[in-house]
Structure formats: structure tokens, C-alpha cells
Amino acid sequence: MTDTPVLRVAGRPVARYVTRPELPDRLSPRPYLHPVTTLGGTAVTELSPADHPHHLGVGVAVPDVEGHNFWGGRTYVRDRGPTELDNHGAQRHVTFPLRDPDGFVQELRWMAAGGELLHERRTVAATGLGATAWALDLTFALTNTTSAPLTLGSPATNGRPGAAYGGFFWRARKEAEPPRVLTPDAEGETQAHGRAADWLALVGGSWTLVFAGVTDATRRDPWFVRTGEYPGVGSSLAHTARTPIAPGDTLVRRVVTVVADGRLGRGEAAALVRKAVAR
Fold this sequence. Notes:
The protein is mainly beta. The chain is built from three helices and 21 strands. Strand 10 (115-128) and strand 11 (133-144) form a beta hairpin.
């Protein structure tokens, strides 16, 4: 069985999962989904774009795990700014306990400095929502396998305001015009960025992505949103303070993303999220 699963909805391929990418260390090698497409065939992810080569489609990435960079690129150092450091970690595939055409369960080791810091169980599933939309359901569970407490940080917790990225992250399709941003009660990057919301939508030229936290803990995480510089959305694990994981403890987050053809309005986005989360 191939190490590159292809997710399908009603027999139609909608996403390719690269399990063992061959990438330089400074990109923090890790599995990713790319390309992800709408049912109509429009790609809604980008891989290693020129502006941020370490942005790898859809996946899980954390810029600071006890000082180790699992995001890729430079590390934000307090009072120094973005700095090239030899501190990159890598996510290593262990096994697929479950594989189906519409999803999989994966075991991963987060490795840095010659040892394992975290063990992850990742669950990914694709579900149809009708003729023009489907949902990607991604859960990750990070267990501290060391004998000491670990903390997860971000550039924001290291002194860079507004840069609380780290966790689930989706690098979206870049077009001539930035996508529109919608939440249940706000519009625009500046209004949505850094705030918690039941869901958040990126509306592109002919496609829409609607992101929603499914668990209480995920819904409390503020959204990280970029549209002007580049189109990307993440759910922030370390927004204003570092997030601790005690030895043997597990941090769990679950995000469902609606992938739709067409430019959805607020009501349509909300309806599809409700349908996706109810399944």
C-alpha cells in the first residue's frame, strides 16, 4: 500500500497526503496534505510558495516546542527578531493503524536533538456535504513522551505581537485578489485575526473554505488569519502564553474545514459548518 494516501469523496480524489516528504531540515520536515481540491477540481492549497517555503499545504506545525522549531524557517528570538537557528525538528511517520479511501489514522514521532519530544495520533477524514462541498476533519493528539514538562510557544509568546501561529495550519490558494474573511459576527482580516469564533471563512475567487473548531478547547483557541501578505488560516495553540504539556499528558485539538465551490455568504457557510460538525 502506498505511503501517499489519496482521500476520496464519492470516489472523487480531493486530497493527497504526503507521508514522508524529502525536505531540507530548515523546513521542519513533516507530513502534509497537498493538493487539496474542491469537488469541482479547484486547488485550494499551496506547497512551499516563494514567500514562505516552509508553508506545506495543510498540516500541524508548531514554531516552538521547548525551543525546537517544528514550523520551519527562522525562529523568532526575543529582542533579536527572526533568526536562523539550527533548532529544527521533524515529524516522523510511524504507522497507519487505519487506512480507508476517505481517511486514515496515523502515528507520528516529533523528533528533535536526537530524541522524541511528542508522540502524535492524527486522524483525518473526508466527508461529502452535497454536490459542491465536502469536509476535511482533522484531529491531532500530542502526548509528551519525555520525563519533564514541555511547553508550546509562538512568536507572539516570544515577543512578536500578532504572530501567535502554531497548531493546525492551512496555506490557501493565492490569487490576484486576497480572499474575503468572514466569521459569524465580523468581516475582514483585522477583525477576525487573534479572536475566537465558532467558525471562520476564507472566500476566494471561485471557492470557499470554512474552518470550525469542534471541541471546547479548540473553539477557545483564537484564529490566526492572514490574507493581505498571503492567504492562510490556523488555530493558535499559544496565543498569549505558552501552553504546557506535563509528562504523559495529551493535548487534543480538532478542526473541521468545509471545502466548497463558489463564493459562499455568511448564512451558507454557517449552514455547511453545522452539517459538517453534526456528522
